[in-house]
């Protein structure tokens, strides 16, 4: 018989961007929240992320307009550049005019700044809400309410348990089964550059995308232009370590981009630490919720980073989940069914779109300037850009039916 007990306490496993967004949105609706974070401290980790209007809308709803303006770097546009020539294309539809068209900006953040902003807001409601050094060892769903079991045997019970514990989610493994990632055939270089090290023409407020055969590079400003984020994706074998903290070398990164434009060489040399990680492909999960346990963010829909929507979708998840739990507070299973119905199809479409972009960014026709011009004029025409991105940007997490 279905337990219809009222939802009062929500336990969130994982204190990343999605988990903290959910916590803040839930607290604002009167829920008791506990966030279990495996790390012993809230550290400044990660690099840059882009948040389109669908995500900055949620941050605005949570009261962060002033912080966004102070911490983010608002994109003035998107530029596509050819890998080894001076050809460039302005892709206005992807960022410029975001406020006017969607009501909210397209911004770039250092992940640590975004994370700290959310953590401070959550902790302002009580220092006990975020429990550090609290790793999920397993779940117990045998009772009327699920419990998270910590390594010391402690049980943390909630009316709802949310797995927001990232791409290697323990909660997902418990309710969905073993993870089955496949190497995408690509690995990525990531680094952050003090913008003062770069020549003037690279100190720009646009998000720049370099496309070439078998590779692409994205770079954009962070912290109001104080820093520049660099990501270079390479097709190749021999590196299948899926970790953001694994270090490579400048020499290897330069070799991977040998023959590319001098601007790329300049940026690679300006990076202090060159991180390198494998990009893995996972099939979309078509059901996230089982009983009173559910998933959000990378635990639910890990994706290749080729639509710039990983963090944005986690932020959407957190807000929509809070709405669903509040609207169906007296029916936990109905609440999670509504959450799944609102989120699963959208995020699956996002995962598939990111997979498709991998081939689009690395097409062999990009090898020479003339072939590249014809290809980019076609693939990045206004109509095709709107088709690929507008459905993402126009989403309103506060209005979608739950």
Query: The biggest beta sheet, please?
Result: 7 strands, mixed
Return the structural class. Answer: alpha/beta
Please list the strands of the largest sheet in the order they lie side by side: 6-5-14-15-16-13-17
First and last CA, distance: 24 Å
Please give the CATH class.
Alpha Beta
CATH topology: FAD/NAD(P)-binding domain
Low-confidence stretches: none
Overall description:
34% of the residues lie in helices and 22% in strands. The strands form four sheets. Strands 6-5-14-15-16-13-17 form a seven-stranded mixed β-sheet, with helices on both faces. Strands 8-2-1-12-18 form a five-stranded parallel β-sheet. The protein has a three-stranded antiparallel β-sheet with strand order 3-7-4. It is built from twelve helices and 18 strands.
Would you summarize the structure shown here?
With 402 residues, the protein is α/β, with parallel strands linked by helices. 34% of the residues lie in helices and 22% in strands. α1 (17-27) packs parallel to α9 (310-327).
Write the layout of secondary structure elements.
Elements: E1 9-13, H1 17-27, E2 32-36, E3 48-51, H2 53-61, H3 65-71, E4 73-74, E5 78-82, E6 88-90, H4 98-102, E7 107-110, H5 111-123, E8 130-131, E9 138-140, E10 147-149, E11 155-157, E12 160-163, H6 170-175, E13 182-194, E14 207-212, E15 215-222, E16 227-235, H7 250-256, H8 262-270, E17 275-281, E18 293-295, H9 310-327, H10 332-361, H11 369-379, H12 382-393
Parallel strand pairs: 1-2, 1-12, 2-8, 5-14, 12-18
Antiparallel strand pairs: 3-7, 4-7, 5-6, 9-10, 10-11, 13-16, 13-17, 14-15, 15-16
């Amino acid at each position: 018989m279905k337990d219809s007990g009222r939802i009062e306490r929500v336990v969130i496993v994982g204190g990343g961007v999605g988990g903290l967004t959910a916590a803040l949105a839930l607290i604002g609706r009167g829920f008791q929240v506990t966030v279990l974070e495996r790390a012993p401290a809230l550290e400044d980790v990660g690099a840059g992320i882009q948040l389109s209007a669908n995500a900055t809308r949620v941050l605005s709803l949570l009261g962060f307009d002033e912080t966004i303006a102070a911490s983010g770097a608002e994109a003035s546009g998107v530029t596509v550049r050819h890998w080894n020539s001076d050809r460039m294309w302005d892709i206005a539809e992807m960022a410029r005019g975001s406020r006017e068209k969607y009501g909210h900006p397209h911004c770039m953040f250092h992940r640590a700044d975004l994370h700290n902003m959310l953590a401070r807001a959550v902790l302002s409601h009580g220092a006990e809400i975020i429990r550090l050094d609290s790793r999920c060892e397993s779940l117990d769903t045998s009772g009327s309410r699920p419990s998270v079991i910590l390594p010391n045997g402690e049980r943390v019970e909630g009316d709802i348990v949310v797995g927001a514990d990232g791409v290697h989610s323990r909660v997902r493994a418990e309710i969905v089964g073993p993870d089955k990632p496949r190497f995408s055939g690509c690995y990525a270089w990531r680094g952050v550059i003090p913008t003062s090290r770069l020549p003037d023409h690279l100190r720009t407020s646009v998000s720049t995308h370099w496309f070439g055969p078998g590779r692409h590079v994205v770079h954009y400003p962070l912290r109001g232009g104080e820093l520049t984020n660099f990501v270079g994706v390479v097709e190749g074998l021999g590196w299948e370590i899926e970790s953001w903290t694994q270090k490579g070398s400048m020499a290897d990164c330069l070799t991977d981009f040998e023959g590319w434009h001098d601007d790329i060489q300049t940026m690679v040399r300006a990076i202090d630490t060159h991180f390198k990680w494998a990009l893995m492909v996972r099939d979309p999960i078509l059901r996230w919720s089982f009983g009173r346990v559910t998933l959000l963010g990378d635990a639910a829909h890990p994706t290749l980073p080729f639509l710039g929507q990983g963090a944005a979708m986690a932020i959407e998840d957190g807000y929509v989940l809070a709405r669903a739990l509040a609207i169906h507070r007296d029916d936990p299973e109905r609440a999670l069914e509504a959450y799944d119905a609102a989120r699963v199809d959208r995020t699956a479409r996002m995962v598939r779109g990111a997979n498709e972009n991998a081939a689009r960014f690395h097409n062999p026709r990009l090898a020479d300037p003339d072939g590249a011009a014809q290809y980019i004029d076609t693939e990045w025409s206004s109509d095709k850009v709107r088709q690929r991105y507008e459905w993402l940007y126009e989403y309103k997490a506060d209005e979608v039916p739950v």
